[in-house]
Write a structure and sequence with these properties.
Oligomer: single chain
Order of helices and strands: HEEHEEEEEE
Distance between the termini: 38 Å
Number of strands: 8
Number of domains: 1
Strand content: 35-45%
Helix content: 10-25%
CATH architecture: Roll
CATH class: Mainly Beta
């Protein structure tokens, strides 16, 4: 495999009891996503405990998703907080 292809390889890890598929090098270059709801709980694992309450206009970088796509592992741009959100609360890239 060439070095260029290796940077886009998919990394698999077992996280929070759910299979997570994430393109590690691509995550840093992913566009910021906004919340499409006014307020949401950031969780320690998919369906896990709430560790923070987040409000608009917070923006996130998606680091990965569960295998079924229902949960997204995100990092808040402003605070650096990292955790899980239900994927449907994130606006499509470029929308806020």
């Amino acid at each position: 495999m060439s070095a260029g292809r290796a940077t886009h390889a998919v990394a698999l890890a077992l996280t929070g009891g759910a299979l997570l598929a994430a393109a590690a090098p691509a995550a840093a270059a992913a566009p910021a996503r906004a919340l499409c709801v006014d307020r949401v709980a950031l969780r320690d694992a998919p369906g896990g405990f709430a560790v923070a309450q987040l409000r608009k206009p917070q923006r996130f970088v998606v680091l990965g998703r569960t295998a079924n796509g229902r949960w997204s592992l995100v990092r808040a741009q402003r605070t650096g907080a990292q955790g899980w959100l239900v994927s449907k609360v994130l606006c499509a890239p470029g929308r806020s």
